[in-house]
Design a protein that fits this description.
31 strands; 381 residues; single chain; 4-stranded antiparallel sheet; Methylamine Dehydrogenase, Chain H
Length: 381
């Protein structure tokens, strides 16, 4: 099962996706993971509390357990010291802003197959805005933590419209940045193998949105082209052609993943089964690096450091241009959330001890990491 992390390409409210799966076997020659907790994080109450519960963020959010719809869902808000700041009586959100001041959440209940509607809440769980326009969950909090960037379908009925790139500050009118490619919706032509027909739905993917860099990065999966747009006026200022289509037009889901730095400059191309990961500089169009690695999980705020899976069992926090390793962890499929204006990272790896959720580690720029939660669900990019 994959869940999104709010904080970052995850679905930790910080990490772009959280993966549940079999535990990774610890081996004697693998790096030890730091500060093992004595317990699973089933409840916010087991976390150490900060001395000032109302201290100003930034915050990270995660859900201590999946309540299975029992109505007990809640999120733990922690500081970058790993200590509990507060608890929110709300299920795991879809995205969190970088500073934790804004959360994008599904507005439940969702009736039958109706498109999801969303609420934007603040760190006190107060509703700031309602949105029904987001297409296919394609949304990113910009790096100023105020603007929400998202894609909207021009046809509200979901029948072959165009994708708009919109930018919105909660409570203010939306600003349309650009019209992108087509959204394709075809009804199911047969069965997906499990007896349940699946429609074919495809459209642009929003990969990055930076107010500070005045830049958005969008993938057209049909022709495999990345476009770089100015947020201020929608002008196309760059492009890169991969020369092949992306899912759902080609290859099974999960076989290729593009991971883009916060400012939309660098893109890592993770291909399942490959033995290296190229990193492209979208500003110059040049190859910035070709890492001997399995995958890149994400970048630091300034793009200089990355969490890289270097083997079947080892994740390295590395300065990817020089190759200097800051820290190693035992694990696979790293998810990353970057602390604003800092080299610090939150790294989530599928639990090495249990059958579900992520183990979360804060990796300061000093390279002295510590574990903050175990086997939890997390959000966001």
């Amino acid at each position: 099962m994959r869940r999104a992390i709010l904080v970052g390409g995850w679905t930790l409210i910080a990490v772009a996706g959280c993966t549940s799966g079999p535990a990774t076997t610890q081996k004697e020659n693998l790096p030890p993971n730091p500060s093992p907790l004595a317990h699973l994080t089933y409840d916010c109450a087991v976390l150490d509390r900060a001395s000032e519960a109302n201290a100003i963020g930034p915050y990270l959010y995660f859900e201590p357990f999946d309540d299975g719809g029992s109505g007990q869902a809640r999120m733990c808000a922690i500081g970058w010291d790993g200590k509990l700041r507060r608890q929110l009586d709300r299920g795991l959100a879809t995205l969190q802003s970088a500073d934790g001041s804004r959360l994008l959440a599904i507005d439940y209940p969702v009736v039958n197959s109706a498109p999801a509607s969303y609420v934007i809440v603040d760190e006190a769980n107060r509703i700031l805005d309602h949105l029904k326009e987001i297409w296919n969950n394609e949304a990113i909090w910009a790096d100023d933590s105020r603007h929400l960037c998202y894609l909207e379908d021009s046809n509200a009925l979901g029948q072959n419209g165009l994708a708009y790139l919109d930018v919105r500050v909660p409570g203010e009118p939306v600003r349309r940045v650009a019209t992108l490619g087509a959204i394709i919706y075809l009804p199911p032509a047969g069965s997906n193998g499990g007896g349940v027909p699946s429609p074919f739905i495809a459209g642009p993917r929003l990969l990055a949105c930076s107010m500070s860099a005045d830049r958005a990065v969008v993938l057209n999966p049909a022709n495999g082209t990345i476009s770089v747009l100015r947020l201020s006026d929608g002008t196309k200022v760059g492009a890169h052609e991969f020369g092949r289509p992306f899912y759902p037009y080609h290859d099974p889901a999960g076989s290729e993943q593009l991971v883009v730095s916060r400012d939309g400059r660098y893109v890592a191309d993770n291909v399942e089964g490959a033995h290296s990961v190229p990193i492209l500089d979208l500003l110059t169009g040049a190859d910035a690096a070709d890492l001997e690695a399995v995958r890149v999980g994400g970048f630091s705020w300034d793009g200089k450091v990355a969490a890289v899976q270097v083997s079947d069992h080892v994740v390295a926090i590395t300065e990817w241009r020089s190759g200097r390793v800051v820290r190693q962890l035992t694990g696979t499929y790293p998810s990353v959330f970057a602390r604003p204006d800092s080299p610090d990272l939150l790294v989530g790896i599928p639990s090495t001890r249990h059958e579900f959720g992520l183990d979360l580690y804060i990796i300061p720029g000093s390279g002295a990491p510590f574990e903050v939660a175990r086997s939890v669900e997390v959000t966001g990019r």
